[in-house]
Automatic annotation (TrEMBL):
<protein>
    <submittedName>
        <fullName>Cystathionine beta-lyase</fullName>
    </submittedName>
</protein>
<comment type="pathway">
    <text>Amino-acid biosynthesis; L-methionine biosynthesis via de novo pathway; L-homocysteine from L-cystathionine: step 1/1.</text>
</comment>
<comment type="similarity">
    <text>Belongs to the trans-sulfuration enzymes family.</text>
</comment>
<dbReference type="InterPro" id="IPR054542">
    <property type="entry name" value="Cys_met_metab_PP"/>
</dbReference>
<dbReference type="InterPro" id="IPR000277">
    <property type="entry name" value="Cys/Met-Metab_PyrdxlP-dep_enz"/>
</dbReference>
<keyword id="KW-0663">Pyridoxal phosphate</keyword>
<dbReference type="InterPro" id="IPR015424">
    <property type="entry name" value="PyrdxlP-dep_Trfase"/>
</dbReference>
<dbReference type="InterPro" id="IPR015422">
    <property type="entry name" value="PyrdxlP-dep_Trfase_small"/>
</dbReference>
<dbReference type="InterPro" id="IPR006233">
    <property type="entry name" value="Cys_b_lyase_bac"/>
</dbReference>
<dbReference type="Pfam" id="PF01053">
    <property type="entry name" value="Cys_Met_Meta_PP"/>
</dbReference>
<keyword id="KW-0456">Lyase</keyword>
<dbReference type="InterPro" id="IPR015421">
    <property type="entry name" value="PyrdxlP-dep_Trfase_major"/>
</dbReference>
Length: 390
């Protein structure tokens, strides 16, 4: 089946749906065994059927199977947030005395995990230039066990050379983890590029409505036993109600993503033509850094990108963002609404130095009419320029 058909059919086994279109919400802590032998069989193989609510119900199994099929992996686990998925996947792969390599463009809370709890547990982190490619070889140590990638980066949208990084990592018997949230399971086949674990903040495009916190981690055959063991040991689970909402969001992901992509590209090209914009950081633009890698490794884009202004500072950016009508100030992305976030990448860089002529603004382009969004941005530029010209 083609991808868009798979996204409709995946995870909808008749024994889970019971004759209705969507798998129902199975809420459970305790599961009942008819006979003591059934319980003993369950202890031997808890994944053979219902065992305990934390290990999942048909609601969970449906989403796990659907994501696994879309990603092309060996198995998927669900977590209560995207960050929980990142943290759970990393902690499943390392132990005291290990060393990990993490891209300098990584999601800020992931950086804090590496600099906080992982360091306290005796795991050493080296941050690396996201554009390093095969040059990452020089950073490997005898105890390097994991490379944490994110492509494109959360704020500055650098595209990583995943095949080159994965080849080096595997030569050192290390695993490669990718935060694949930007591309979604539709726009990048992570395992084809050498990745071992693909993580998504399902909070974003998979759910698609800004009302659920959820994470997924899918692993290949090599990494799946380690990932699953870690998830079970740490007690990671997710609410079946949230999982059901993710299943519903997943079915419309292709059509939503097409609109996000088209509107974002229209706005990115409009921004490129403005004299008061210094740089538009959207990997699908031919002028953007990493565009050649994007063309090679991705089948499409989403609604998230950044741009930098050619003057001003974060002390004056209030004039730009405070009175916007459609672009709301807020974290996260992937919902139907448009968001804007002023942020300084220099705060969270250690291996590379971020330099720009003016402030950076990250946009999530939602499902509103792009012409209305452009009008909202044009008025923001007028306010900002009036302040700077006064």
């Amino acid at each position: 089946m083609k991808r868009d058909t798979t996204i409709i059919e995946a995870g909808r086994r008749p024994e889970w749906t019971q004759g209705i279109v969507n798998p129902p919400v199975y809420r459970a802590s305790t599961c009942i065994f008819e006979r003591y032998q059934d319980l003993r069989d369950g202890v031997k193989d808890p994944d053979a059927g219902l065992f305990y609510g934390r290990r999942g119900t048909p609601t969970h199994w449906a989403l796990r199977e659907a994501i696994t099929e879309l990603e092309g992996g060996a198995g998927t686990w669900l977590y209560p947030s995207g960050m929980a998925a990142v943290a759970g996947a990393i902690m499943a792969c390392v132990r005291t005395g290990d060393h990990i390599l993490v891209t300098d463009s990584v999601y800020e809370p992931t950086r804090f995990l590496c600099q906080g709890m992982l360091r306290d547990f005796g795991v050493e982190t080296t941050f690396y230039d996201p554009e390093i490619g095969a040059g990452i070889e020089a950073l490997f140590q005898e105890n390097t066990r994991l490379v944490v990638t994110e492509s494109p980066g959360s704020l500055t949208l650098e595209v990583q050379d995943l095949p080159a990084i994965s080849k080096v990592a595997h030569a050192h018997d290390a695993l490669v983890l990718l935060d694949n949230t930007w591309a979604t399971p539709l726009h990048m086949r992570a395992f084809d590029l050498g990745v071992d674990i693909s993580v998504h903040a399902a909070t974003k495009y998979i759910v698609g409505h800004s009302d659920v916190m959820l994470g997924t981690a899918t692993a290949n055959a090599r990494a799946w036993p380690k990932l699953k063991h870690g998830a079970v040991q740490l007690g990671h689970t997710a609410s079946p109600d949230d999982v059901w909402l993710a299943l519903r969001g997943l079915r419309t992901l292709p059509v939503r993503l097409k609109q996000h992509e088209a509107s974002a590209l229209k706005i990115a090209k409009w921004l490129q033509d403005r004299e008061d914009v210094d740089q538009v950081l959207h990997p699908a633009l031919p002028t953007a850094p990493g565009h050649d890698l994007f063309k090679r490794d991705f089948s499409g884009a989403c609604g998230l990108f950044s741009f930098t202004l050619n003057r001003g500072s974060y002390d004056t950016i209030d004039a730009f963002v405070d009175d916007m009508r459609l672009f709301k100030i807020g974290f996260s992305w992937g919902g139907f609404e448009s968001l804007i976030l002023p942020t300084d990448p220099a705060r969270v860089r250690s291996a590379t130095k971020w330099q720009a002529r003016g402030p950076l603004l990250r946009l999530h382009v939602g499902l509103e009419d792009p012409d209305d969004l452009i009008d909202d941005l044009a008025k923001a530029f007028d306010r900002y320029n009036r302040l700077l010209n006064a």
